[in-house]
Write a structure and sequence with these properties.
358 residues; 3-stranded antiparallel β-sheet; 8 strands; 60% helix; globular; transport; ion transport
Length: 358
């Protein structure tokens, strides 16, 4: 018994140190070849260059050279029509077919062109960017996980699942029974597939965004466009399938008459609430994910900021940076799961409020 306990203790300690070293490796998403070569580090540029979308998928740097995957750029110019080429033609400020990447102004970081009047304009852009590739990756991974789990149940209809399939069953039943059914009520079935898809979609994208090495690192749920589409889907699910009682409470709520006539104060507040609910969903998910990535990148930049301050200060700040970044990565794992749960829970509650009958 003592030998068995000792072996279990060794395994647990080994698992702990393996996890710690893995988190340390994950804690360095910023390349050491930043502007530190000039003795100066532009933290804002480093942070936003990793968070914002890009026309190339950066992998790493080797001997001072960037290793990245050029992505296809598909544009439609008002004067020349459609054009398709690889983003490598636009590297280092190059101009290709009158297109270039703007470095300042409202179109900073986007492909623009000069029209016949010499004005900088943005063409219709349907390019395959880093976030789009990350989105395709996460959707493919989600389909693989769901279809793999469904195939197992088809082959083993009378067996209790274990391993990854058992973990999936636990997660699905937790969301289905504890969130969807509890939040919506009796009429939950038409919305269960949507809410389960939303939960796993957000969860997978959040987890992929934490991994800084290729093919991870795409800041998908930290992109307000993605969260806006998810919030719009919930907005449509709530309002397109709402009951008459729901709309009655919007335009003629159960409130004192002086709050409805002659000025429709309460109807205005209730109608405004229709828009604030999806807006809150959009901002909450976007802000939490982007803030987490920003803090981790800023903490990592401490190593390069203090590089010119001497060995003692730089060594101390390196240890502090690593410890705090490991802590933030652990916290980000919690936030990744929590934000997926909160978005699904609030969506279910909003749908349930629209389906309640008096």
């Amino acid at each position: 018994m003592r030998k068995k306990k000792k072996m279990n203790r060794i395994k647990n300690n080994g698992l702990f140190w393996f996890t710690f070293l893995l988190l340390v490796c994950i804690s360095f998403p910023v390349s050491a070849s930043t502007d530190a070569k000039q003795g100066e580090v532009d933290v804002q540029d480093i942070v936003f260059s990793h968070i914002k979308d890009a026309y190339t998928w950066h992998i790493t740097e080797w001997n001072g050279k960037e290793i990245s995957i050029p992505l296809p750029v598909l544009l439609k110019s008002e004067e020349r029509g459609w054009d398709l080429f690889l983003s490598s033609h636009l590297h280092h400020g190059n101009v290709h077919h009158n297109y270039y990447i703007s470095k300042e102004g409202k179109h900073a970081g986007k492909v623009v062109e000069k029209n016949s009047r010499g004005e900088e304009v943005k063409p219709w852009d349907l390019s395959l960017t880093k976030n789009v590739c990350g989105l395709l990756l996460s959707c493919g991974l989600l389909l693989f996980i769901v279809l793999r789990t469904a195939r197992w149940y088809k082959k083993h209809p009378y067996e209790a699942p274990g391993g990854f399939t058992g973990l999936m069953e636990m997660a699905v039943m937790f969301i289905h029974d504890g969130v969807v059914k509890e939040g919506i009520g009796k009429e939950y079935k038409p919305f269960s597939s949507y809410l389960l898809t939303v939960f796993f979609f957000i969860l997978i994208n959040n987890l992929i965004g934490i991994i800084p090495i290729f093919p991870g690192g795409a800041n998908i749920t930290g992109n307000i466009t993605i969260t806006a589409v998810l919030a719009l889907c919930t907005f449509l699910a709530v309002n397109l399938f709402a009951t008459k009682e729901y709309w009655k409470e919007i335009f003629w709520p159960n409130a004192p008459i002086f709050l409805k006539l002659p000025l429709p104060i309460m109807p205005f507040v209730e109608f405004f609430g229709i828009l604030t609910k999806p807006f809150a969903l959009m901002i909450r998910l976007f802000a939490n994910i982007m803030a987490g990535h920003t803090i981790i990148l800023a903490l990592t930049c401490l190593i390069f900021i203090t590089a010119s301050m001497g060995t003692a200060i730089n060594g101390t700040m390196t240890i502090v940076s690593v410890l705090f970044t490991v802590f933030m990565n652990c916290l980000e794992l919690l936030v990744a799961c929590l934000q997926a749960y909160i978005f699904t829970l609030l969506s279910a509650n909003y749908i349930g409020l629209a389906k309640v009958r008096e």
